[in-house]
Amino acid sequence: MTKVLMKKALVVLCVLALLVSITACGAGKPSPTDVAESFFTALQNFDEEKMATVYLGENLDLAGDLLQEDPQDEFTQQMTEQLLVKLLDFDYELSNEVIDGDRATVDVTITQWSIGSMFISFLQDYFTRAMELAMDGATEAEISEFAFVVLSEKMEEMQKDFIKSATLELEQVDGQWMVSIIAEDSDMFDALTGGMISAMTQFGN
User: At CA 147, angle to CA 122 and CA 201, rounded to 5?
Assistant: First the structure.
């Protein structure tokens, strides 16, 4: 009887060991594409905790990076809040994962609101009218309020038709894939901000 019980126990242990082995093999480590998916999802949801697990830089604050992290005036605060809503409302498609040692790339096509074009249109209209208001004796507060009105109008007219492809870079850290720091002058940052970097360069020129 004891031998029979021991045999049954051994069979059960073997089955459990096999199940654990299969589960471990099936789970595996997240691929670069998996990590890229987690990164963009965290960005869309403004999930700082999740972002910290997949991104090597500090939390990617698109609106704060474009304007300033701690806006002091009411206009800039309102502008940041409105921009953030649009910035996080992007779509993306991942493709073409390439792994080269401890480095990897994943191609991304982003569909974003045309924030760059809106920004150029806003500046052109605002500066022309602001100079007229100033010459008519308008106060600084009135001119700032006018800026917010123009910005709101431009945002309501804005379309979600900016499409740009870029390459997301990743690297292995302690055996796990992480998204490399995204430079503010990169194609990826330009894609995520709806062409804002291109627009600022164009306006500067």
Answer: 35
